[in-house]
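Running this now, will post back.
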Amino acid sequence: MYVSEMPRDPNFILTHLGELEALAEEILTEKQQVVDLDRKRNQSREAVRALKRQSDTPQSSRSHSENKTWICFGNTFVKLPSKNVQSMLTEDQKRLDGEINNLREGLKPKVAKLRDMEGKAEKKGFDLKAMSREEMTALHHPGIALK
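Update: finished.
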């Protein structure tokens, strides 16, 4: 409903503004969650890269104890095999990617609803989806058919 079409009833206006503010707050909260999860994902990526660099050093220069890595779980530090830590971090990255993508997909209809409630036109191109790997391959190699 556009603002110019809204009834002049004060209760309706207050209710509408309350709904508008609640939706805007929810959008801002989810955007902040995306930022926080992305920060965690980047830290995880840095840790995986550091473990790979550590494992690339020659075996002769490393002692037996360097095959294990300290990792923090909450308030507890645990020394685990580096390969296990690396696989745990990789799985954590995949989980974070999924959470970030779900939050971003959930934001699109909420932002569209907010714009509608504000009486603004829908954003053009806001609901676009990225091309899949297969679509990109087909684009660069026209002879390959999509599944």
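The two ends are 42 Å apart (CA to CA). More later if anyone needs it.
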